[in-house]
Design brief:
InterPro entries: aa-tRNA-synth_I_CS, aa-tRNA-synth_Ic, Rossmann-like_a/b/a_fold, Trp-tRNA-ligase, Trp-tRNA_synthetase. Belongs to the class-I aminoacyl-tRNA synthetase family. It is a single chain. By secondary structure, the chain is mostly helical. It has two domains: 2-186 and 302-332, Rossmann fold, CATH 3.40.50; 209-297, Tyrosyl-Transfer RNA Synthetase. The chain contains 14 helices and five strands. The protein has helices spanning 16-30, 43-46, 56-69, 87-96, 101-105, 108-116, 123-126, 128-137, 151-168, 212-220, 237-249, 252-264, 274-301, 303-332, and strands spanning 2-8, 35-41, 78-81, 143-145, 176-178. The protein has a three-stranded parallel β-sheet. Strands 4-5 form a two-stranded parallel sheet. α1 (16-30) links the parallel β1 and β2 (35-41). The longest helix has 30 residues, at 303-332. It starts with a strand and ends in a 5-residue tail after the last helix. The structure holds adenosine-5'-triphosphate. Adenosine-5'-triphosphate is lined by residues 6, 8-9, 11, 17-18, 20-22, 146-147, 149-150, 185-187, 195-199.
């Protein structure tokens, strides 16, 4: 079977970008005979940007609960917490010796973070892609279901696998980003600026836990314009984004109607009514989110269940991780006993 790995940082409530870019694929992959799946809560990664850990435990539980509410089955996959698998930290150490400072400094995500938190440019932030490579390579994964924002990190992970193999012998397969649709997904923020994310402006992010009123409020404020200048225009990013969200939660007929209205519109004859489209999208979105948020809240309150899931996940993940680490130590020549 092909090994699959992916993780989510416990930096807040999960949003539609996480769902659409990552979790939707997790659920499909767990039910696909071809795959052996490892999904984790990236709590070490969250320390690079969120050093205050007072909320961390409940966030970790929340991410697990939301993953299960979206359909992940802890009996079918390994669902674990990153810090429960110390083998990852050992591989991170080895990979750090193959990672170069200049290269890491050029990573766009690092440059973004430096702009966002100039007073806390810690080494963990710089070596984020190294830890991410360790997360993936520790299970010798080949497929990584992630959103478009992670594409570059996958390229870095492939470089490290390649360098390791070159220096110590073939141990690590090359991992690739994966989405069932082919193209990786990027859900934009509702104001049309950048990607939707957990820690950015909350009014521009649709969280799985949002109630119907809040969903309506956020979607009605989403960026639109006066409509296309001519029939069959290319949609601007922020309009395409609304259609993308609609394709996720509305019926095909609904999407087709608004697509047709858009294509028939021109400056002198605006058929598409974005107000109606957003109203419909808000209703369908609220109906989509309700069962997920209710189920997630139930699971989060069930500490016994959560503990069982966490223990079970850690056991599965450590079994796989320690097997890889054995191969790695032996390739490096660090198997002394
Ligand atoms: P933060 O704001 O704390 O950086 P985040 O929302 O960017 O968090 P991550 O935990 O970094 O989320 O990412 C979890 C998964 O969700 C990754 O696979 C990532 O590619 C995917 N993802 C996050 N945001 C989006 C988005 N807007 N569109 C598509 N996929 C996304």
């Amino acid at each position: 079977k092909e090994v699959v790995v992916s993780g989510i940082r416990p930096t807040g409530f999960l949003h539609l970008g996480n769902y659409f870019g990552a979790m939707r694929n997790y659920v499909r992959m767990q039910n696909d005979e071809k795959f052996n799946c490892y999904f984790f809560v990236a709590n070490w990664h969250s320390l690079t940007t969120h050093p205050d850990t007072r909320e961390l435990q409940s966030s970790v539980h929340r991410v697990i609960a939301e993953n299960i509410a979206c359909g992940l089955d802890p009996d079918k996959v390994a669902l674990y917490i990153q810090s429960d698998v110390p083998e990852i930290a050992e591989l991170y150490l080895y990979l750090n010796m193959l990672a170069y400072k200049g290269e890491l400094e050029k990573t766009p995500t690092f440059k973004d973070k430096v702009r966002l938190q100039p007073d806390n440019v810690n080494a963990g932030l710089l070596t984020y892609p190294v830890l991410m490579a360790a997360d993936i390579l520790i299970h010798r994964a080949v497929k990584v279901p992630v959103g478009k924002d992670q594409e570059q990190h996958l390229e870095i992970a492939r470089n490290y696998a390649d360098r390791f193999n070159h220096r110590y012998g073939e141990v690590l397969p090359a991992p690739y980003a994966f989405n069932y649709g082919g193209e990786l997904v990027k859900i934009m923020s509702l104001d049309g600026n950048g990607k939707m994310s957990k820690s950015e402006n909350q009014m521009n992010t649709l969280y799985l836990a949002d109630d119907a009123d809040l969903i309506r409020k956020k979607i009605m404020k989403a960026k639109t314009d006066q409509g296309p200048a001519e029939p069959n225009s290319v949609k601007p990013d922020y309009i395409e984004n609304l259609f993308t969200l609609m394709r996720l939660v509305s019926t095909e007929d609904t999407v087709a109607k608004f697509e047709a209205d858009f294509n028939a519109s021109s400056a002198g004859n605006v058929v598409i009514r974005y107000g109606d489209m957003k109203k419909q999208l808000a209703e369908d979105m609220a109906a989509f989110m309700k069962p997920i948020s209710e189920k997630a809240a139930d699971i989060q309150n069930n500490k016994e269940l959560l503990n069982r899931i966490i223990r079970q996940g850690a056991d599965k993940a450590r079994a796989s991780a320690s097997a890889t680490l054995k191969l790695i130590r032996s390739a490096i020549g660090m198997d002394y006993s």
